[in-house]
Amino acid sequence: MRTILCVGGRQGSLPNYRDAVEQTGASFLYHDGGLEQSAQVLEAGLSAADLVICQTGCISHDAYWRVKDHCKRTGKPCLFVDNPSRSSLQRALVQWYQPRADA
């Protein structure tokens, strides 16, 4: 089973994010993007994830650069989403899964 880490977003939308990810058959991990959770928790999530979705409008600069650096160093796929909504997250997931469905 794939694991998808969602970094950032609105706290009140977490159930929607979880539902959108789990509808793909993946397990859901979340980090608040440095608002309250530590960088060590972020690093653990990044290591465990198969795909990272970074909601850029709702995270600290430090968390953004940690995500970007980790994914670049490891070759881990990362999707950057500007708008922290369920529909934006779903579009990113469709974008990620669509090319694989065609293969």
Verbal overview:
This protein is of the alpha/beta class and 103 residues long. Helix content is 49%, strand content 18%. It is built from four helices and four strands, in the order βαβαβαβα. It has helices spanning 14-22, 39-48, 61-74, 86-102; strands at 3-7, 27-31, 51-55, 78-81. Strands 2-1-3-4 form a four-stranded parallel β-sheet, with helices on both faces. Helix 3 (61-74) links the parallel strand 3 (51-55) and strand 4 (78-81). Helix 1 runs parallel beside helix 4. The radius of gyration is 12 Å and the shape is globular. The two termini are 19 Å apart. The model has no long low-confidence stretch (mean pLDDT 86).
Main features:
globular, alpha/beta, four-stranded parallel beta sheet, 103 residues, 49% helix
Q: What is the topological layout?
A:
Layout: E1 3-7, H1 14-22, E2 27-31, H2 39-48, E3 51-55, H3 61-74, E4 78-81, H4 86-102
Parallel strand pairs: 1-2, 1-3, 3-4
Helix pairs in contact: 1-4, 2-3
Structure at a glance:
The chain is α/β, with parallel strands linked by helices and 103 residues long.
User: Overall mean pLDDT score?
Assistant: 86
One letter per element, helices H and strands E, the order comes to EHEHEHEH
Straight-line distance between termini = 19 Å
Q: Which radius of gyration do the C-alpha atoms yield?
A: 12 Å
Report the strand count.
Answer: 4
Question: Biggest β-sheet, characterized?
Answer: 4 strands, parallel
